[in-house]
Amino acid sequence: MGEGTANRSNQEWLDSVYDKLKVKLKAECRRVGTDIPYTTGEDGRYRDIIDTAYGRTPDGGVTLANWTNGFWPGMLWQMYHATGDTAYRDAAAGVEERLEAVLKDSESVGHDLGFLFLQSSVANYRETGDKEAKRRGLLAAAELAARYNLKGEFLRAWSGPRETEHGKRMGGGDIRGWMIIDSMMNLPLLYWASRELDDPRFSQIAVSHAKTVQRYIVRPDGSCNHIVALDPDTGEYLNNPAGQGYGQGSSWSRGQSWAVYGFALSFRHTGDQSFLDTAKQCAHYCVSNMAVTDWVPLVDYRQPAEPVKYDSTAAMITACGLLEIAGHVGESEARFYTEAAYRILRACEAKFADWDPERDSILTGGAYFYHDPTGENTDRPIIYADYFFIEAVLRLKGKDLFEW
Ligand code: GLY
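# glycine complex -> structure
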């Protein structure tokens, strides 16, 4: 296909997907409102997080601190920005009121204050200038900054005692010294706070953390580990627990996608060329791996040949990261990243999309982690696959709200 024909075909695909998106999200917004969804039930409908295991603390209490709770308001703000339909804005504001509880739940909340509040309060503030939303965003940034470990120069990932059941499943050890690649997406909350307050403190912490991630998590070939364990008292390097991928030394595709998008965003906010170089290095690794599986990523790029397991969430996040990189390079280079993003989006839409407006969620094919004995967390609709799909489509249409 010549370049002109490929561009026309991409444009036609984009226009038709945008039309379907408006119908599907309108119906979802009417049904879901201020509930906070994560995945669908047997009936194809979302339920509120509080009515699921993801709304529970290890001791059986109720919490709204789950890292995925910002994606629904994030989607609503995207759709409000694109269409001007106030039903989206009102539902997003209602979810944000509920998320206020997270700011009083410091025992449960981890470093994902970025995901939670960039997509709710900060998106609200960016879109409407609401002062309460700004207050919540700044409070969340202060709580995130307070997770900084001075000796190890990193933001602690998860909360809780030294040893937790979750930590044991991820490889074991003292989680107080752990940081994970996903953290790169939380840093924009700190960059935002520095800009709002005209004070470099928050940004300095973000840059320091990003440099530590670059040093211990990204490998020279552009692949990544999920976790690095440092000694929380001395900051000394200990090891790299396996995390959510296949095993130690493998490359969990969603972790890879956080690296692509996260480092590109750190470049956007700081202008530090090394961050863009790292984003490109990780992007090239992802693109070359996806090219041999028809542009649909495996859960782990180094998983065994069988069983074949895919992850649509990694696909959507990578596509958004590629589009971000395309915005920071020259025109001829940008074509490579944009075309790769289109290939991923189109392949996954063809394989995983359900456009029936009576059913919640667009994309299935999401996987929470590689090792999943019950199968309940594999080949599922997962809310953030939809969020990043919508973000990518709206960005390509020139209608997105920048949320990071
Ligand atoms: N941030 C957690 C995950 O990507 O599963």
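# post-check
Residues 12-397 form a domain with the Glycosyltransferase fold (CATH 1.50.10.10).
The chain has 13 helices and five strands.
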